[in-house]
Fold this sequence. Notes:
Layout lengths: L1 H26 L10 E7 L6 H20 L8 E7 L4 H13 L5 E3 L4 H14 L3 E3 L14 E3 L4 H15 L4 E7 L3 H16 L3 E8 L7 H10 L3 E3 L4 H13 L6 E3 L6 H7 L6 E5 L8 H14 L5 H20 L4 H9 L4 E3 L2 E5 L5 E2 L2 E7 L4 E9 L20 E2 L31
Parallel strand pairs: 1-2, 1-3, 3-4, 4-5, 6-7, 6-8, 8-9, 9-10, 15-16
Antiparallel strand pairs: 10-14, 11-12, 12-13, 14-15
Helix pairs in contact: 2-11, 3-4, 5-6, 8-9, 11-12
Amino acid sequence: MKNFFLAFSLIFSILLSSACVDKSANSTTNSGSGDGDIKVGVYGDTSGATSSFGQSTKNGIQLAFDEINAAGGVNGRKLIMLFEDDQGRPEQAKTVVSKLINQDRVQALLGEVASTNSLAAAPVAQDAKIPMITPSSTNPKVTEVGDYISRVCFIDPFQGLVMAKFAGNTLKAKTAAIIGDVNSDYSKGLTAVFEQEFTKLGGRVVAKEAYTQTDPDFKGQLTKIRNLNPEVIYIPGYYGQVGIIAKQARELGMNMPLLGGDGWDSPDLWKLGGESLKNAYISNHYSADNPAPEIQNFVKAYRAKFNTAPDSLAALAYDAAKVLADAIKRAGGTDGAKLKDAINATKEFKGVTGSITLDANRNAVKPAVVLELNPTDSKFTFKETINPEGMSAPTAANTNTMSNGNMMMNANAMSNGNMMMNSNTTNSNSNMNSTMNANR
């Protein structure tokens, strides 16, 4: 009998201990407790086709968290990043975000870059009422998922408009060709906006050709474009294909300007395209050449930590992390509803990519820069800034919103950072469905 009671006592103690551990584990939830570290889930691609994007994003967030924690944290609490690699796949993005919320009990989310992945994960965050800030997904549909989803970047209707304006007004082009990724919402959306705006300016799109990310060769599409001799070629794709397209275009004797978007911005672009990237321009979120102290301090700190220059994805991720920290401070903690409201109320937050104000749709209203590619030095050089309509010129105290103090007011840009675009464009030379919204 004594042995029975000893055995019973031992089993009871184990069960009690186990129950205490479970209770302790569940006490660190994403319900907004004001004690302990703040766990932030970060997801992105660090092993797939856009791994450069994920690594830059991870680095930018880590730098911001390190600076915030070194200064005492947020309301005395440290920010802890829990990172998950989604391999650049939408279904995996949804899976890892579910894990971050349900197993790791994160209290906020930062991610993704590619909007296809953000769109897959955002409903999970919305349903769980966990605030999510995407640093760089520019598809308008991302924030339409719900009020717990926001972003710190401009959206693709503005980005497509910027390059159409640059092509028509600055380069004086009257004809253009487009070659884009038929499976990418980003590429299809930018195609629709660029074509519409370029046509409004009196230009004509003479060809639209399509490819996929798995295509090894693009000379067939490029040869068709060469035969129509457009003055510019718009390539709204990602760096992995753009570098090869640029090289093959130059090999075919196509020396006209090549135009693109922020999907080009990667250190790997220079390795793939080399000198073929001369006479090429992109729209982007910031210029590392901007002499503003805020930007140069960021560039210096990033270089010191990661031994490379920060691209726009790193800068946007850094800003997203800082916006989140500021919102947690204003919300007085990490309660989901209060934090969501604080994020959405962000006004004139001074980031390295500009002054960030979120509009009614939780999109950032901010300017875009046009950068020229300099393959000799593997860098992007500032050309001009294009503002949304209604945005005033920068003051001397806030030159970080405009690179080198230059500004080109865009009278036809979107009002309040939003523009309803008619995406029912004519698809004349490919099976590309240009009615889709944009991806990054």
